[in-house]
Amino acid sequence: MNSDSFDPAAQEQRQQQQAVEPDTPESPSRREFLETTGATVAASTVVSFATPAMAQSTDAAAPQTAITVSVNGVQHEVEVEDRWTLAELLRDGIGLTGTKIGCDRSECGACTVLMNGAPVYSCSQLAVWADDAEIRTVEGLAQNGRLTPLQQAFVDNNAPQCGFCTSGQLMSATALLQANPSPTADEARAALVGNLCRCSNYNAIVEAVVAAGGGDTA
Ligand code: FES
Fold it and tell me: N or C terminus of the chain: which is more exposed, having fewer CB within 10 Å?
């Protein structure tokens, strides 16, 4: 059980690091990122911080609620403002930035996580609605340094392009494979209809999902 506290200074330092990393020659390739991110983060427990914006927005007069939420198997007790979204809690409160915010209004699916096993847009779920819920994010997929078959299929089929939508695609596809271990291409397309890809790499994404289920993508 973790009782989370916010550290704006740590977040500011992290943002500064992120600002310079994309331009450094040591920056990992997209494939390296996909192969290592899940394992690295899944192996850690909890890093708790808030963005300066979130810290400044914390208004003592704003309604707050104490919630208990399980994220990737780790229990968190957190005091959240009632207006915070689940995406904000995950990214800014708990530090799991694998969940991306694209449109922030239920249109793109980049923010998709699993809530009690079902895919939801975390940008459109209030954090208080996650009380007593089990949340799974992309950081919770790889276990002990091993990618899931779905993640490996994404790598093998070049499913990520810019990668921004990839975590949301993975979470929706994970829910599909849990319900239907061997989906057809049409079933994969239907399950991913709420996840947009601005690179329009849909064919490769669908092929990866079908391959993860053991289907023939030839
Ligand atoms: Fe949530 Fe686009 S960021 S649906």
Answer: C
